[in-house]
Amino acid sequence: MKKNFAVVGFGGMGSWHVNHALKSDVLNLCGIYDIDEKKSALAKEKGIYAYSSLEELLNDKNVELVTVAIPNDVHLETVVKLLRSGKNVICEKPVALSSSDLEEMIKASKESGKLFTVHQNRRWDVDYLAMQSIKDSGEIGKPLRIESRIHGSRGIPSDWRCQKSHGGGMMLDWGVHLIDQLMLIYKNEKIDTINCVETHITNDEVDDGFYLTITFESGAVAFVEVGTYNFLPLPRFYMKAEKGTALIMDWREKTKVAKCKYWHENDVLPVQTAAGLTKTMAPRDSVTLDEYELDIPKSDVHDFYRNVCKAIDGEEAQLVTHDQVRLVLKIMEQAFKSAKLNQTIKFQY
Fold first, then answer.
1. pLDDT at position 267 over 70
2. Which domains does the chain have, with CATH numbers?
3. Element (H, E) at 267
């Protein structure tokens, strides 16, 4: 049976959730609530019920599940009210602006006995799924370094995401996704240090990009880069592993893999470069290297909602767990600290 569902916030992501709910095999859309009367009017024009107040939604006993898609700084109050009213809750990312706020939400979830999770939808991105698949297969061995990048050239969207008080900036907007993905790939690794450098090319108040290096106790490295002033983007993903390399230039492209079959070559011919010869950088041949492409994985982002509904009924464990959300938030908090101090810091769990 479908879960009766509502959305708080009818902006960009709120509309995305509504559109998915209208086509869902597990959700029945009851309505939306937004403090902006124009957005409520737009919902009504589309034939969607608009609650007149949050209290009306809280008191609607038919609603079982609510997604919160409003500015980051007002997540806490809204999520806690919904949980205490008996609703299961999905919160948009980043879930909170501090670990203490997150713990209040988790406490309300436990006390109410209601499910609480975070919409980490980019776990269904095909580029991430390809990287996860390569790592899990062991085809090119254990990853030594994974670089994950998102590049754009339009700065920060000109709304509350530019404002620190609302939880703006690219670390909280995109970093939260890329960090979550890498922590799942490196799920058995323990973090040693964090180093972060923010960029403020187009915005002085919040970061419009950053470079984040996460070093694990094993020596493996996760590198995250977000840029909003890059007119020629670098690869989306680059994995250097024990037995080879994997590269994804763009999420619309197949993964390129190069697997080293033999390390030594008997007769390496020097390569003539502009200013001299080099053996070190001489290209490999098919005798020592396998090069191939992997098909783009299949993905359905609505599997997130299917999992949530089954988790509510006790049929599955929720995919986005409290511990996973805690870890990503702690990494972001300590990344901000590293950037402020302009130094590498020891990670504190």
1. no
2. 3-119 (3.40.50.720), 123-300+330-346 (3.30.360.10)
3. none
Label residues 43-67 b or e (16+ Cβ within 10 Å = b): beeeebebbeebeebbebeebbbbb
CB-based contacts of 320, cutoff 8 Å, min separation 6: 117, 118, 119, 120, 123, 304
Helix axis angle for 75-84 and 99-112, nearest 10°, is 10
| DSSP E strand stretches across the chain | 3-8, 27-33, 65-68, 88-91, 116-118, 143-151, 191-199, 209-216, 221-227, 237-241, 244-248, 255-260, 271-273, 276-278, 289-294, 345-346
pLDDT of 268 reads: 67
d(CA 31, CA 21): 10
225 SS3 class: strand
Give pLDDT tens digits for 24-44.
999 999 999 999 999 999 999
Confidence of residue 311 (pLDDT cuts 50, 70, 90): very high
Residue 121 has phi, psi (to 5 degrees) of -65, -20
The predicted model scores a pTM of 0.94
User: What pLDDT band is residue 271 in, cutting at 50, 70 and 90?
Assistant: low
Q: What is the DSSP string of 168-190?
A: -SHIIIIIHHHHHHHHHHTTT--
Token duo for residue 75: 């997540």
